[in-house]
Amino acid sequence: MKSLFRFSFLLSALVLSGLANDAYAQTKNPMIIDRDKDGKLDFKIGNKVVTTYNYGPTVAKPYFWPMVTIGENRVTRDWPMLPDSPEAKDHKHQKSAWFCHGDVIPEGIELKQKSKGVAGVDFWSEETNFGKIVCVKIGKIENNANSSSVITMNEWRTSDGIKIMDETRSFTLELAGNGYLIKMNTSLVASVCPITFGDTKEGSFGIRIRDSVTEKEKKGGILTNAQGKKTEKEIWGLESPWCDYSGPCDKGIAGVTIITDASNPLKTCWHSRGYGLMAANPFGREKSGFPDRKGNKDLVKLPKDGVLKLSFGLYVHDGNAEDAKVKEVAGK
């Protein structure tokens, strides 16, 4: 077993200078984050909402939806947020873009309700006895011409409402490449008890791409990682600093890249599927089935009051991975 705590991180790996598409960079549209009264944060470029962070009291965990490129392509799935959406109606917990983990074990706390096959609390599936990530505070919002940021505070709670962990989660919105980048920093704090992150493929920073972009639809949608490998068969369960899902949308090719920060203390494997899921999972080990974790049984653990800091980027772009210069935006 290996205890991991009190890590530091930097976002220097996300190299942005000089990469913004000229047409976008030359506009005078400011980056804006607006808070409304319905548990939402609107992320805007000028007067256009490109995505909304939904954190209200009715959600199981905060999520971004919709996600729209600057070229007005909706790139993530609309169901179940739009019940009448013609898209695939499976995995109701895969709401556009989110962060969580499928097995968080609060050491020393007896769980009265548990999900099948989960040692601790399931924050992933939203089926039975699942936990909730509850936003308890929206901190300071800073809006500037070239970037905007916001800090949020969450409590991770069991299905019966008992807090087991605190989290500070911040976001920054910037232009990059052929689109925009949302950088997320999270500090997971074992404020209540020691925490173990269980060995499961069901995690952690994920998106559910719209149906037309998926490999399953066979319309040209494709997964690509930093090593140049493509398709679920070549990518699933392997380490990579980023993974992209791009394909045909309403107004041409578009996609989303998830980028892991180089200073993250944990390497990331990819729970990426041809049906539309793409998730960066730093916690899965041998039991998860990831080929790059074979023989690794060292679970990620936090002692009481320990802190785990992780950083990711969501690059929402027009064009495919090559046209959108994902390598340059990711810095790797």
Q: Would you write up a description of this structure?
A:
- The protein has one domain (2-330): Distorted Sandwich (Beta-galactosidase, Chain A, domain 5), CATH 2.70.98.
- 4% of the residues lie in helices and 41% in strands.
- The protein is built from 3 helices and 20 strands.
- The relative contact order is 0.20.
- Residues 1-27 have low confidence and may be disordered.
Structural category is: mainly beta
CATH topology-level name: Beta-galactosidase, Chain A, domain 5
Give me the strand/helix succession: EHEEEEEEEEEEEEEHEEEEEEH
Alpha carbon gap, first and last residue: 31 Å
Largest sheet: 8 strands, antiparallel
Q: Which strands sit side by side, in order, in the main sheet?
A: 2-3-4-5-6-13-18-17
- Envelope shape: globular
Give the tally of β-strands: 20
Number of helices in the DSSP assignment: 3
Low-confidence stretches: 1-27
Portion of residues within helices: under 10%
Topology at a glance:
Layout (H helix, E strand, L loop, with lengths): L1 E2 L18 H4 L5 E5 L4 E6 L2 E7 L8 E5 L29 E5 L2 E3 L25 E12 L3 E11 L5 E14 L2 E11 L5 E3 L5 E6 L13 E4 L6 H4 L6 E8 L2 E9 L8 E4 L4 E5 L18 E3 L4 E12 L7 H5 L2
Parallel strand pairs: 1-19
Antiparallel strand pairs: 2-3, 3-4, 4-5, 5-6, 6-13, 7-12, 8-9, 9-10, 10-11, 11-20, 12-19, 13-18, 14-15, 15-16, 16-20, 17-18
Précis, in short:
With about 325 residues, the chain is mostly beta strands. It is about 5% helix and about 40% strand.
